[in-house]
Design brief:
About 45% of the residues lie in helices and about 20% in strands. By secondary structure, the chain is α/β, with parallel strands linked by helices. Strands 3-2-1-4-5-6 form a 6-stranded parallel beta sheet, with helices on both faces.
Length: about 180
């Protein structure tokens, strides 16, 4: 089960230059915005990574607009764990977070490499399957299958959210219900 106290949302490389080439851009943006809103409502930390933003642009504006409190890492390695700023945040600021909730792009490049490293470091990884994408649907589908085989727990946006709040008695249930509609 996902525990709010142990969780960290990691958004990987959902940047402007990818917008016209992803196979499911609108669904991806919508789902990531919902994740961000719920995580911020629940005061669960968010870590945003951007791959070479000078060339690929910043995080897509719709998502960035919803980010109020978050940590940011700029990287050039596909694998977030090859960036010392990223690992420093995990080891120091987020040392009590062993459940990584991951969304982002591209599933078959940066997301899979980061997840494989996270699993090797004994993190419990929950991959939001409807919060990832690639340029080609087949690349994304194969990456999802591979990450699950390697030990990532495939989840959907709503699976993650409802596991965190446990039941309809949660004080945020009504507001969360409005967000995910």
């Amino acid at each position: 089960m996902i525990d709010q106290q142990k969780s960290l949302l990691i958004i990987i490389d959902i940047q402007e230059k990818f917008r016209p080439v992803l196979f499911n851009t609108d669904e991806l943006i919508s789902n990531v915005i919902k994740l961000v809103k719920v995580f911020q409502l629940l005061k669960i930390p968010v870590l945003v990574c951007e791959q070479y933003p000078k060339g690929l642009g910043e995080t897509m504006k719709e998502i960035k607009k919803e980010l109020k409190e978050y940590e940011y890492v700029e990287k050039i390695s596909f694998n977030c764990f090859l960036n010392s700023d990223f690992t420093d945040l995990l080891e120091n600021k987020f040392s009590d977070k062993n459940q990584l909730i991951i969304c982002g792009i591209e599933a078959h490049v940066c997301v899979i490499q980061t997840i494989l490293s996270a699993l090797l470091k004994d993190y419990e990884v929950h991959l939001v399957a409807n919060g990832v994408s690639s340029r080609q649907k087949m690349d994304c589908d194969i990456a999802l299958r591979r990450m699950e085989l390697e030990g990532a727990k495939l989840s959907s946006l709503e699976m993650v959210i409802f596991q965190m709040i446990k039941d309809s008695k949660d004080k945020h249930f009504k507001e969360i219900s409005q967000i995910i509609r």
